[in-house]
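For reproducibility, we list the full input for the nicotinamide-adenine-dinucleotide complex.
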Amino acid sequence: METKILYGRDLAKEIVEKIKTKVKNLKDKGLRVPGLAVILVGNDPASKIYVNKKHQTCKEIGFNSFSYNLPEDTNFLRLKELIEELNEREDVDGILLQLPLPEKLREKSYELIYSISPLKDVDGFHPYNVGLLTIGDDRGIKPCTPKGIMYLLNHYDIKVEGKDVTVVGASNIVGKPISIMLINKMATVSVCHIKTRCVPEFTAKADIVISATGVPHLIKKDMIKEGAVVIDVGISRLNGKIVGDVDFESMLGHVSAITPVPGGVGPLTVAMLMENTLECYVRRENIYSI
Ligand code: NAD
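The corresponding predicted structure, in tokenized form, follows.
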């Protein structure tokens, strides 16, 4: 069987180009451009790379990008104050609190996310937006990685309605929201997590498997039905190389389609963040055509 490689990188470039044109149109009309504030606390190297990528993409598009790099020992109240200040700022349309927070603040992560205005919640993590997503109301802001996965499936014409989909990983960032989005599109969804007794039992029967665990090469060929579609969200380092949750090489010739790591879902996450920032701007400014 020929395996189609589902690249996200080129799709992400197209999305970024489209937003760039819209920002140019705004500038040409003498209007304000969208602004994204990104808060990074501490020195986590992976977070620094992600935050830099976000700033770079903002710059490329023409968004205003406001960067807050705070020391590891920043306290809860200081962060909350900063978020409240950003909530009030006219020139800030989106607020992103880079996760994970340093150990001392981690248990307060959700309290801080709750303090971000739902109208500026570009990550779609605020309970208001999570609620809208769960109800299936499109007026909310959707989380970037699951939104990117849905975009990718749609772009490659992979239908989900009526399909058996197994999601491995049940985090609030990826596993749970993608499961809800798939249910909203009438897929039959099984969700596995660390306590699932027999993950292969669920993956082997699925037409589509989406894995988001961060366990390198957890998903092997013998766990996947021939001709299935495999979406790999995981990003880990193995022997100095970036790898996903899926044993990619072994899947070639066995599955009908698969995303690579890197170059699959990852670039779409950043593109969706840009889309969400523009969406927040459009709603705040009541602009209906750019
Ligand atoms: P997380 O640690 O919050 O959640 C991991 C989930 O996987 C949990 O539900 C856990 O129960 C489950 N899990 C762990 N080991 C398992 C196992 N052996 N069997 C079954 N389930 C298992 O992680 P997250 O934030 O959801 O991220 C998951 C992965 O996706 C990470 O590698 C992360 O770097 C990556 N990620 C990528 C993008 C992207 O843009 N591509 C975005 C977000 C996260």
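The chain has two domains: 32-117, 144-266. The chain is about 40% helix and 15% strand. Both points were considered when choosing residues for closer inspection.
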